[in-house]
């Protein structure tokens, strides 16, 4: 079986849904960050797939965008982990159910 | 030098005023500082007054003014200023000199008083205000100082605040003079309306100069009479004289300074100052307003000397004599003898202060006894007081040659003799001379001669006084009471009190040098003419006449009162008349029955109106307002309030609903975002 665009899109949609599910259902802040990382990975997969099956597969535009996105995701992960540590120090918990200071 | 003192003339009243503020802030125990400061201020004022006096000596008729703008409203500028002329300069020297003597005397007289510092503060305040009256070149400035003087008088009459009678007397003095001042104020307004300026002299534009007088024109008579009302109140002239004898409730130095020498003379000074208003349009030296002045003066002078005959309080006798002397000065001004009146004012300042201080010394020596019936024989116990008092009495009675009062009275009699309207004032004033001599002789005999005659005291024969003289080292002799009660010590006053007496006595004698017709220096000085010496004018026929009258008065007095006892000889001979005079011609009672009763009735009417008419109106409006209030409250409660309540309840419910969505759970928010995105996707797919 040859790889097609549809196959990649299905895989990336699945990846995104798994990440979303993790971000929505896990109670631990670290797992939520992991979920977000999964969703970003799905987006990267989409970039690559649309470039590979697009009109100009010779110029490496899709790869470049994906590399940028990974760099941003790394920075985002660093900020996210720092926030988690700060929250833990302050509230002595990483359970997001107990972090309801934003309650209106 | 002369321009410096004219520009800085304000310093003379300002120094005592400033010192009075300082002294007022001193604590009570700092007595010596208070007294020293007050006396120092008086010395400074005296020196400045003499400095101011010098330039007026050099040019006859010297007059310098210093005017400036006080404030402006719209295009009107209110200007005030001060002036230096012979009248002001002579008054200033007299006031500061007499004031200094009285300040020194007060140190001894008030030594035991618990409000010593307050006394000196008030006294300084008075002195400053009085000097302000004298230097004013503006009727407004004069009026302001005039009222300050009245305030000082009020404070000092009521100085012994714990005495109800003093409080009543102070109130009476204040209100009575205020009645006169109302006239003064109206006169001032009228004057301003007509002439547009209140400055006396302003390079030809002042209200006492030609153009100003021209603008005033025919209303001058009324303006002058209104201003004269103020003078009547202040100088204790009939019919507003009733406050002055009562003012004797104040400490004796106050009576000497304010109610004899200076303040009461301010009325005479005022008339002399605005004399051009009085004499405007004079025919042969007579105007209607001056005739009124003469009439009031004559009535006052005679009435007061008669009342003085039947008084027993040492200070009241002097008070009535002050009233009568002031009347005499008014007569002099009214008949045209301005210089004579002012000369008598100054001479009177010296000798009346002397008499009052002498009376103070007697009162002090007798432990606050003021009834002359309980005195007697004091000439041996208080020799200095006796001698100086005798000099004062000679001055007041008008004994000529050695006593200034005699010469100035002489001048006044001269002026009245030439009055063209009627010779009556002249004869009445001659009668007044006899009366004055009579009541002063009576007082002298009661106080100093004879022996202590009251049954309360042991009668002491002169021999015993002689023996007691030797015992003066103990400072006092017990005259003693036979009955119960405190032992009564008569003694001569301390030197701080006798020295001012001696100074004033010397002043009143030395003053003669510039008064006699042989060298009428003061007369010429006040009139702005050069003085000529001519010894042949010394003896004039009228002098012999008045000498005879004075001698007659004293002689008759001696005959009548030689054997005076508890009961006055006049009372024995004419009980009805005596009672009439003793009760001050029932002026107080008449006023009580008429004016005061009327004002009481009016106040009761006003009270009734207030209580029932105006109050009813106010209550009616209040009721209306209340009803309206009830109405609008109902509307508020049931109309507006309900609507507002509904709105707020709705808002609150909606808010609660929204708030519920904000759980603070970050995953809930994320879920919402995811659902929203999904919906957008669906929408996008559906719309194509």
In short:
The complex is a heterodimer of chains A (104) and B (688). Helix content of chain A is 73%, strand content 0%.
Explain the overall architecture:
The complex is a heterodimer of chains A (104) and B (688). Chain A is built from three helices and no strands. Chain A is an all-alpha fold and 104 residues long. Chain B is mainly alpha-helical and 688 residues long. In chain B, the strands form two sheets. In chain B, strands 1-2 form a two-stranded antiparallel ribbon. Chain B has a two-stranded antiparallel ribbon with strand order 3-4. The longest helix of chain B is centred in the last third of the chain and has 75 residues, at 587-661. Classes of the chains: A mainly alpha (104), B mainly alpha (688). Chains A and B meet through helix 1 of A and helix 27 and helix 28 of B.
Describe the oligomeric state of these chains in a short phrase: heterodimer
Q: Kindly name the structural category of chain B.
A: mainly alpha
Major beta sheet, strand line-up of chain B: 1-2
Radius of gyration of chain B: 36 Å
What's the total helix number of chain A?
3
Mean pLDDT of chain A: 89
- What's the number of helices of chain B? 28
Most residues in contact, chain pair and counts? A-B, 13 and 13 residues
């Amino acid at each position: 079986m040859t790889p097609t665009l549809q196959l990649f899109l299905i895989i990336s949609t699945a990846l995104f849904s798994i990440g979303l599910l993790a971000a929505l259902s896990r109670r631990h802040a670290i797992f939520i960050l992991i979920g977000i990382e999964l969703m970003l990975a799905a987006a990267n997969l989409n970039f690559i797939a649309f470039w590979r099956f697009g009109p100009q597969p010779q110029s490496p535009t899709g790869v470049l965008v994906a590399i940028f996105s990974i760099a941003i995701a790394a920075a985002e992960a660093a900020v996210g982990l720092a926030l988690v540590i700060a929250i833990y120090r302050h509230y002595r918990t990483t359970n997001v159910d107990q972090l309801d200071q934003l309650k209106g | 030098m002369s321009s410096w003192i004219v520009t800085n003339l304000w310093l003379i009243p300002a120094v005592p005023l400033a010192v009075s503020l300082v002294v007022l802030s001193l604590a009570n125990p700092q007595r010596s500082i208070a007294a020293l400061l007050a006396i120092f201020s008086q010395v400074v004022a005296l020196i400045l007054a003499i400095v101011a006096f010098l330039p007026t000596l050099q040019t006859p008729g010297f007059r310098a003014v210093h005017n400036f703008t006080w404030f402006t409203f719209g295009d009107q500028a209110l200007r005030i200023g001060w002036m230096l002329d012979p009248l002001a300069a002579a008054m200033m020297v007299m006031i500061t000199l007499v004031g200094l003597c009285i300040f020194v005397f007060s140190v001894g007289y008030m030594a035991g008083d618990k409000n010593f510092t307050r006394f000196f503060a008030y006294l300084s305040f008075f002195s400053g205000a009085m000097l302000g009256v004298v230097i004013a070149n503006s009727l407004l400035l004069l009026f302001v100082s005039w009222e300050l003087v009245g305030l000082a008088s009020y404070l000092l009459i009521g100085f012994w605040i714990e005495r109800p009678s003093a409080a009543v007397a102070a109130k009476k003095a204040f209100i009575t003079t205020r009645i006169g001042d109302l006239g003064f104020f109206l006169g001032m307004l009228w004057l301003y309306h007509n002439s547009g300026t209140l400055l006396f002299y302003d390079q030809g534009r002042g209200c006492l100069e030609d153009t100003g007088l021209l603008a005033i024109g025919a209303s001058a008579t009324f303006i002058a009479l209104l201003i004269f009302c103020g003078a009547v109140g202040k100088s204790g002239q009939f019919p507003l004289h009733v406050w002055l004898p009562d003012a004797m409730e104040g400490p004796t130095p106050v009576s000497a300074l304010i109610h004899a020498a200076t303040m009461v003379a301010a009325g005479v000074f005022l008339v002399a100052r605005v004399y051009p208003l009085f004499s405007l349009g004079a025919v042969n030296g007579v105007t209607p307003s001056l005739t009124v002045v003469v009439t009031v003066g004559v009535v006052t002078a005679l009435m007061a000397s008669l009342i003085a005959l039947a008084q027993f309080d040492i200070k009241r006798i002097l008070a009535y004599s002050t009233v009568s002397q002031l009347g005499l000065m008014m007569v002099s001004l009214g008949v045209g003898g301005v210089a004579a009146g002012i000369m008598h004012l100054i001479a009177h300042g010296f000798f009346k202060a002397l008499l009052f201080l002498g009376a103070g010394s007697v009162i002090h020596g007798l432990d606050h006894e003021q009834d002359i019936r309980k005195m007697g024989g004091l000439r041996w116990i208080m020799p200095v007081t006796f001698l100086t008092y005798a000099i004062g009495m000679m001055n007041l009675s008008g004994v000529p040659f050695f006593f200034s009062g005699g010469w100035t009275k002489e001048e006044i009699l001269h002026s009245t003799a030439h009055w063209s309207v009627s010779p009556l004032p002249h004869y009445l004033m001659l009668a007044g001379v006899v009366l004055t001599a009579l009541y002063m002789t009576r007082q002298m005999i009661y106080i100093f001669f004879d022996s202590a005659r009251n049954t309360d005291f042991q009668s002491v024969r002169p021999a015993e006084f002689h023996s007691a003289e030797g015992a003066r080292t103990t400072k006092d002799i017990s005259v003693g009471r036979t009955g119960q009660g405190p032992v009564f010590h008569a003694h001569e006053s301390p030197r701080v009190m006798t020295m001012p007496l001696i100074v004033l006595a010397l002043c009143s004698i030395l003053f003669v040098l510039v008064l006699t017709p042989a060298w009428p220096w003061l007369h010429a000085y006040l009139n702005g003419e050069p003085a000529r010496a001519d010894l042949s004018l010394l003896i004039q026929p009228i002098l012999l006449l008045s000498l005879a009258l004075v001698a007659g008065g004293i002689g008759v007095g001696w005959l009548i009162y030689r054997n005076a006892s508890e009961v006055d000889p006049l009372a024995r001979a004419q009980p009805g008349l005596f009672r009439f005079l003793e009760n001050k011609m029932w002026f107080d009672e008449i006023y009580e029955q008429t004016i005061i009763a009327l004002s009481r009735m009016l106040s009761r009417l006003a009270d009734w109106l207030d209580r029932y008419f105006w109050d009813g109106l106010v209550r009616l409006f209040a009721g209306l307002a209340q009803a309206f209030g009830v109405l609008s409250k109902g509307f508020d409660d049931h109309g507006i309030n309900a609507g507002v309540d509904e709105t707020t309840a709705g808002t609150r419910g909606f808010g609660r609903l929204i708030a519920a969505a904000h759980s603070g759970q970050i995953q809930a928010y994320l879920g919402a975002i995811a659902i929203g995105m999904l919906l957008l996707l669906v929408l996008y797919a559906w719309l194509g």
